[in-house]
Amino acid sequence: MKIAQDIIIRPVITEESMAEVPAKKYTFEVAKSATKIDIARAVEQLFDVKVAKVNTMNVKGHKRTYGRFSGYKADWKKAIVTTTEDSKPIEFFDGMF
Predict the structure, then answer these.
(1) Domain 4-86, CATH 3.20.20.140 — does that match?
(2) pLDDT digits (tens, 9 = 90+) for 39-68
């Protein structure tokens, strides 16, 4: 069994993801091998909230050029977690406003 800190890697802080915070949708970068059930349990354990829904997507790495060399950034997995209406907000994201 994986521990929650290994599943949730970091929060994703962008304009688009922060616009969804009032609707109780939070975006995280997660481990590529994590399932929706693993992600829901990890968020509930780390932030003490009740998860209603988890949407996941695999993000391809962007092409980067360094001088005359070019390559791709690493692929990663993103999860958008929706909490229930009666659960408290995640304090980390509330501090961003």
Answers:
(1) no
(2) 999 999 999 999 999 999 999 999 999 999
